[in-house]
Amino acid sequence: MLIKGKLQRLNLLEQWRRDSYRIYFNLAILALYISIIRWVLPLWAHGNIHDGIVGCICGLAATFWLTCIARLTLPDDVTPDQLNALLTKAKYHATSAGYYDVPLHKRMKFKSQRIYIENQTGQIVLTGPHNILKRIRNQLEEG
Fold it and tell me: For residue 121, what is the DSSP state?
């Protein structure tokens, strides 16, 4: 069974609304690493300060891009049982609040790791991490 789904990343404003703490966390990590690279590393080595800052910014930007929040729109012929099977295969569990979450310690979770399932007219819309939704879409396309 070949099922086509439309996967689209949310813009920065919508991601901010979904999980502002994740953006704060990335900015705090960026500030911490830049301060370490700028003031601590020059005590032991000479040069490479600018390269370290550029590498830190590139690494956090790539991480933010790969783990961003996305929206997957599926046709109505996908059953909830198929979605449950794929989500449990990806180690997600249903919560009493109506979304799927990873069983991690509370301090290790972000809201952006949750997967929300909404039924719209003739379509099922999943909102969650891009890499997980991409895997779900690929598994549904494979059959």
Answer: T
